[in-house]
């Protein structure tokens, strides 16, 4: 992890008179699990939205895999290898698990498998079958074969989170942005999701940028952690060093000076 796949340089974002991000800079090493933490309203999701292209910052620049993506649309960033999941599930509830994941492959297809005329007499069929094989590998990896034909909207919350991760993996991303992947899960589901994230990072070589509130998960699987508070970067680095920082304890954990002295 010697080079950086993502560079965020002096990014600022405001909505009207409200500053969501102020002069935030950081780098994500290629192949890392990089977590962004902070209290509610710290600007974490705004930062992810700037990286993915949903928001365009008023100042600063974002470089991904050697490309200046500051002004690129989300689809163009996906074409470069950037995947994304959302805090609130963004699945097509009426579609099957398999079809939801196949949607993630759509930008990789030369032929339109959804609407292409003369489908059975064109290269589209052969192409879809090739993509479907790769999707089936992702389904096996995330252990959702038993629900592959089920309607996504009928699944449990934990399984729907896994399907959304599968769809993001179907993009064949170099980097994946995860917005609170453990939110709303029970302990067993969290342990499973943490294992999947580690495996996709180690086995597929996908860089992970993750927002997560569960500090146990953050400490267990992150290579680096960055803390935001009121839209400003407090600190970034090794998880143990970051969590031992007094400013982080005060801002994120809500500890007062007396408690910090006792903890020290």
Automatic annotation (TrEMBL):
Transmembrane regions: none
Domain of life where this protein originates: Bacteria
GO cellular component, one term: plasma membrane
Entry-linked SMART domains: AAA
Entry-linked Gene3D superfamilies: P-loop containing nucleotide triphosphate hydrolases (3.40.50.300)
Key words of the record: ATP-binding, Nucleotide-binding, Transport
Residue ranges of domain ABC transporter in the record: 6-255
Pfam families (UniProt xref): ABC_tran
GO MF terms held by the record: ATP binding; ATP hydrolysis activity
InterPro entries membership: AAA+_ATPase, ABC_AA/LPS_Transport, ABC_transporter-like_ATP-bd, P-loop_NTPase
The name this protein goes by in its record: Amino acid/amide ABC transporter ATP-binding protein 1, HAAT family
Highest classification ranks of the organism: Bacteria, Pseudomonadati, Pseudomonadota, Gammaproteobacteria, Alteromonadales
